[in-house]
Write a structure and sequence with these properties.
Blueprint (H helix, E strand, L loop, with lengths): L5 H16 L8 H7 L4 H12 L3 H19 L4 H7 L5 H12 L26 H22 L1 H9 L3 E4 L3 E2 L7 H16 L5 E2 L2 H5 L8 H8 L3 E10 L2 E10 L4 E11 L3 H15 L6 H8 L6 H16 L2 H17 L4 H15 L8 H14 L4 H13 L3 H14 L4 H14 L3 H14 L6 H17 L3 H14 L4 H15 L2 H14 L4 H13 L3 H17 L9 H10 L3 H16 L6 H12 L2 H11 L7 H6 L13 H27 L4
Parallel strand pairs: 1-3, 1-4, 2-4
Antiparallel strand pairs: 4-5, 5-6
Helix pairs in contact: 1-7, 2-3, 9-12, 9-14, 14-15, 15-16, 16-17, 16-18, 17-18, 18-19, 19-20, 20-21, 21-22, 22-23, 22-24, 23-24, 24-25, 25-26, 26-27, 27-28, 28-29, 29-30, 30-31
């Protein structure tokens, strides 16, 4: 590694000065430093990494700790005061970081030899002190860099290796199969505790489940899952005792890094769960914040009989299927009967009802879901599962803006939860559409759901990402993900469906798109969603009789099944009916669309009103709503693709102001497209 140039040394000195200027501000982070340096976040990350082999956040933390050492040696401040002066508002977290950096706690600084420079300037009180300290910090930094460069082979694994981990299914060592739920419960608790640590990337339970009976080697599994560490466990219950064997393995090297046998009484099950997760995190040097430690150490109940029933319910909840979901609730009820303050049991019962009703038009358990969610929030509002249950209640009620804060808080409590990330992805896809957030959460979910338990599930994970990509305008990337989706499961009808529209993004041939949709419809004539799109594409082509015939079939199904779906398409349906001389019927559809817009919470409300008033011939009102629509960000690519094809827009497109607004909307979309890619790359998600 070459030495730093004079320009690089000067850059680092300026960087240190900027950090020290905000040393007491805990919130001062990477984005703030980039702004102070008049650099983009990505450029700062690359430059600091190149010169120091550290991330920017690690670099900032290092400067804070160096300043802390200086204060502890040269001032009368106590540890707590120094902690706050260098930007650690939690003294316990400061002590942890200090110990990890220097090898001893800050309270023992006086017992260790001081690395000092001779000269009166070091202790002087005059105005030359700050430049001298800055220069000294530069010397210390260069020393650290030299140690890093010359010792990079020794420390490379610890510095560069991502803290990614999968907890493989624990094995039941007992011949008694009735103990399986207990061993699985211990695995689930270990996983759940690790998921609360933001410094880790923890794969989901479903990602690990496919390896329950696998004969694949550790390196094979690590490569398939794209993780560096694997946890293996096995155990059994013997009377009132639990014996659990845990191993931490380096995936690439198939090297056992750490192993431990835990022997505990059943009454110590919560302490056992906490100890396992903290031991694993410590071994791979994951930072656990005080808040995370508090959540890990919180015991869900003090009633072991209640917890035993809960674990039986959890086993069924994780298996899914309607009959298991309802049976799981019975066990959760047993747990609650033993401990009426058991928040986790209330939350999981609510989740079971949510999933049972998910595909049903009438949510028959909505009141029970709400009651269980309220109880979970009452007894533990700091529990991620309580937040999820409450969010699910609002989702089931279609009160989407109410659901969002609970989902976001739940993810804060459990940053590695693929369940919560999946809920957020679907939220921004379907409930309150936002293409950037949809793509971000879809990609995050893909990172945690590497290689789920079957090829069909994998196919649908790729479909979600592919759908998010096309909605954001990434045509080729989307096509690639959908191809992968079909490689895993060629029968994934929804992947074929989305690819039909991607074909239009590539060739602008609406007839080809319609042909592809027709092929999918012939495979499954129950797909009324495809019927609706066949009608819409025919409408865009100006073939109104053909569109009408498709819509007739679609509306018959919608009425027969009493489904209140695709109301947002009623404007086009009504226009089609009018075009073929069915003015009275068409008007009913158009007015139902206008009523729908009254309660529309999405970014597309003003676009809908634009089209409505354009149809009515009131171009001034249409333009006023189109001006409001221009303010929206992260709109779907489908708007860019298909609005120019919409006959409803034909007349208003002749208006110069409308054309000007539309040009700016298109320009903003592609500008956002480029920025989204950069932002997600900076976050390490892309």
């Amino acid at each position: 590694m070459p030495e730093l140039s004079s320009q690089e040394k000067e850059f680092l000195e300026i960087l240190i000065a900027k950090i020290k200027g905000h040393i007491s501000e805990e919130e001062f982070g990477v984005s703030d430093l980039a702004e102070e340096m008049n650099m983009s976040r990505s450029n700062l990350l690359r430059k600091v990494k190149k010169m120091t082999d550290l991330s920017v956040s690690q670099f900032i933390n290092q400067i804070r700790l160096q300043e802390a050492m200086e204060l502890l040696r040269s001032s009368s401040y106590n540890v707590s005061e120094v902690s706050h002066r260098v930007g650690f508002n939690s003294p316990s977290y400061f002590i942890k970081c200090f110990r990890e950096h220097y090898g001893y706690p800050p309270g023992e600084v006086g017992k260790h030899p001081e690395l000092s420079e001779e000269g009166p300037e070091l202790h002087s009180k005059d105005s030359r002190k700050r430049p001298w300290i800055l220069a000294l910090s530069g010397v210390v930094l260069i020393l650290i860099l030299a140690l890093t460069w010359f010792g990079r082979d020794l420390f490379k694994d610890r510095i560069e290796k991502e803290k990614s981990i999968v907890v493989l299914p624990f094995k039941n060592d007992s011949s008694d199969s009735t103990n399986v739920y207990l061993i699985n419960g211990l695995m689930e608790a270990t996983l759940n505790n690790l998921q609360k640590i933001k410094d880790l990337r923890v794969l989901s339970r479903t990602s690990a489940e496919k390896y329950r009976e696998s004969t694949k080697s550790i390196p094979e599994m690590a490569e398939e899952l794209n993780v560096n560490y694997l946890v293996e466990g096995s155990g059994q219950k013997m009377g009132d005792n639990i014996v659990l064997n845990i191993q931490l393995i380096d995936g690439a090297k198939d090297q056992h890094l750490w192993s431990k046998q835990y022997r505990r009484e059943v009454s110590d099950i919560f302490a056992l769960q906490q100890e396992i997760s903290k031991d694993i995190a410590k071994e791979i040097q994951a930072v656990i914040t005080p808040e995370e430690r508090f959540r890990i150490e919180k015991e869900p109940t003090d009633n072991l009989k209640a917890y035993d029933s809960f674990m039986k319910g959890l086993e069924l909840l994780n298996q899914g299927r309607d009959e298991n979901l309802l049976e799981s609730v019975e066990y959760f009820k047993d747990a609650i009967a033993e401990d009426e303050r058991f928040a986790l049991a209330y939350a999981c019962a609510g989740m079971a009802y949510y999933y049972y009703d998910f595909f049903k038009a009438e949510k028959e358990h909505l009141e029970l879901l709400g009651a269980y969610a309220d109880k979970a929030m009452l007894y533990d509002p700091g529990l991620g599962e309580s937040m999820v249950a409450k969010a699910m209640y609002y989702l089931a009620k279609k009160e989407y803006t109410e659901a969002l804060p609970f989902l976001e808080k739940a993810l804060e409590f459990q940053p590695n939860s693929s369940q919560i990330i999946g809920l957020l992805a679907d939220f921004y896809a379907n409930n309150l559409p936002d293409t950037e957030k949809y793509l971000e959460y879809a990609l995050m979910g893909m990172q945690l759901e590497a290689g789920p338990s079957d090829s069909v599930a994998t196919s649908y994970f790729y479909l979600r990402v592919g759908n998010a990509l096309i909605q954001t305008g990434f045509v080729e990337e989307s096509s690639s993900y959908l191809d992968k989706s079909l490689e895993y499961f060629s029968g994934n009808a929804y992947s074929h469906y989305v690819k039909a529209f991607i074909s239009y993004a590539k060739d602008k041939d609406l007839r080809h798109t319609r042909d592809l949709l027709q092929i999918e419809y012939e495979k499954d004539s129950s797909r009324f969603d495809i019927l609706q799109d066949l009608g819409k594409v025919s409408y865009y082509l100006g073939e109104y009789e053909t569109a009408y015939n498709y819509y007739i079939q679609f509306n018959e199904i919608r009425e027969k099944l009493q489904l209140n779906v695709y109301v947002h398409e009623n404007m086009i349906i009504g226009e089609t009916y009018e075009k073929v001389g069915k003015a009275e019927e068409g008007r009913k559809f158009i007015e139902s669309y206008r009523a729908y817009l009254e309660n529309d919470q999405t970014a597309y409300k003003n676009l809908g009103l634009t089209m409505y008033y354009a149809h009515e011939g009131d171009f001034e009102k249409a333009l006023s709503h189109f001006r409001e629509f221009e303010k929206e960000d992260h709109i779907q690519y489908w708007v860019i693709l298909f609005l120019p094809e919409d006959p409803l827009a034909e007349q208003i497109m002749k208006n110069p102001e409308f054309r000007g607004i539309w040009a700016r909307v298109v320009d903003k979309f592609w500008k956002n497209n480029a920025e989204i890619r950069n932002r997600l790359k900076e976050k390490g998600i892309w």
